[in-house]
Amino acid sequence: MNTFSLRYITPCFFVVFYSSISQAQELILIGGALKTCSSFSPDYCLESTTFPNDARSTTLFEINQQSLNRLAQRWPQDNRSPELLSVLKALEIADSAKRYRYTDLVRLLDTETLNLKETLSSKEWAVLLDTLEVSPLAANGQRQQEIVRAKQTDIAGSKAILDYVSNTIRATPTKHYLAITASSRDPYEASDFYANLFDEYGLSGQWLALTPALARAVSSGKCDSLPELRKQMTQSETRERVYPERTRQEQLLCSKGISALIAKIKSVDTVIFNGGDQSLTKQVMYDPSGQAYPWLEALQSRPVIIGTSAGTAIQSGGVNHFGQVPMITNGTSQSALEFGAFEQAPPDSDCAEFNKCKDDKANRLTFDSVGGLGTFPYGILDTHFSERSRTFRLATLLNKTGQKLGFGVDETTALITKKLNDAVSFDVLGEHGVVLLEQLTPNRFRYHYLQPHDKAILNKQGELNVTLAKAVNDAKAHSEFNADINAIFSKNGFKNVVQNSCRSMESKLVYPLSLKEKKQLSILKKTDSKCISAPNGFYSIKNMIFDLDKQITREFQGEYFE
Predict the structure, then answer these.
(1) Number of domains in the chain
(2) pTM here?
């Protein structure tokens, strides 16, 4: 086993890489796309899975005089604004007796002559969706709820993660968890899923109504202002009409005060954070001035913390030897290479989806320099990693901030982090892998790709030990290894290029990158580099090197150099 040290940065031989840990803690950090069987997602279920007829299976909207009146009353601008009149005109043809799915509603608003998806602001779009949404009733007269059948999940990687998480929760003293859905613009919409996620495993879970509105209200003694705060902070309208029992929970939690909220958090050993927008999640941890809310320490100290997508990214933070650990908030790899990283708020979450961003801001790499919850002080976390080809954006942010370690978690994959007294271990579970990046110089990085059964350990002196599992003799190279440099910013683009380097007999592969400023990517296999075949046909990788430099050679593609 080789040991790779990050101590080159300092003249001192012994460096405390991260602060002392007062207790053991386990983080289960999922890269997103935890494809789980539910009434909302039956495609992820075993064929034999059934749901009650009145289980919630989609979001529905109604277009009638009553809902249009709500829309006009709550429109952000003057109710005679051209945008509102255009919306009302487009919806004239709707059937008032019909309930529309989201795609059907968009179709009404997106015609050859009218493209409201692009012209409406994010606030206007949010008001439109919220005021037209309807809450169908179940047979018992209550709101229809999403039913989760996690044990019936037919996606092997997801099922492995769900099984592991359930066993971890069951091993805690309380055997109970709280779910926080603050990453969503509408935090009530995902409450059923997370509260019921482990019902089939016999575990007790509860949605914690710690929303951005609740955090502001309870900390300022303004519980009566919750509806207005929802509108102000997350652009959420009329949620009490669609999710009456959830907003009542929120109101009750607020009325009990801060001490009760802290006690509630401390009553469980496990907290789950959902996916969405990590900048929204941070609003339940820090006030507008950046001061920590009184319940932050209770969240940070839970023995088991689980996150997916934004719920993983929010764990970044704290301080290590290289300074404050930032939290990534937006951006693509291509934009990162062309424009760099920006310490500023990310664009609106629907900015890119509806082409409403200005000056290409939709793709800009943005970050929060002080990080999020701070349970992961070892480096910068990123998610949806290989699928969205985010290696360059993580490398760019490491360069910008001076951090030395980056962790990129693939979709349907979990990075399992266990804090011990003198070290922290990293294991991988699920369908794909986790990238570990070490910044060696501003343009040179060491690359590891860990898959299930591989392991890494980081000690307090900053020494990272990577151990790959034994090779699988009958593993076959995956067809996606055909590396097209023109697709390096596309799905699995960077992953495929590096995997192809494993398959090659050459020690160095140089590619030009199609950017405004000509740059080239060099991938180097050193004498201690290792590529080990895994059962899924991909290579686990240890100690590969890649360089990013200005292009100084002729334009070639796929040529090899010693």
Answers:
(1) 2
(2) 0.93
